[in-house]
User: Which sequence fits this backbone?
């Protein structure tokens, strides 16, 4: 409500529970958010992150991060793949050099 009143964006970082660790492929879901009952109803959008190379360091997808739009109050949900440059603490569009 504060963000809507002020026309601003509030970013909340939350920890996941271990639910995705037991799922095939280890893909996170909105239900894996800690205290999901408190976060999910108030959020306009929820973006989850998954790195294949966290689980398989020699993976063909090493260096990639999947941004999973698990909730989007203003549109559709999807998965976007971007490149991570963790030594710079950033992620980048893979189409850019």
Assistant:
């Amino acid at each position: 409500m504060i963000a809507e009143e002020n026309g601003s964006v509030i970013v909340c970082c939350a920890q996941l529970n271990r639910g995705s660790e037991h799922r095939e492929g280890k893909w996170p879901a909105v239900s894996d958010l800690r205290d999901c009952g408190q976060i999910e109803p108030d959020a306009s959008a929820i973006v989850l992150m998954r790195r294949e190379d966290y689980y398989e360091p020699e993976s063909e997808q090493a260096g990639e991060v999947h941004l999973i739009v698990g909730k989007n109050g203003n549109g559709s949900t999807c998965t976007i793949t971007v490149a991570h440059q963790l030594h710079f603490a950033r992620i980048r569009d893979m189409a850019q050099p």
Q: What stands out?
A: The two ends are 39 Å apart (CA to CA). Helices lie at 2-6, 36-39, 52-55. The beta strands are 45-50, 64-72, 78-85, 90-92.
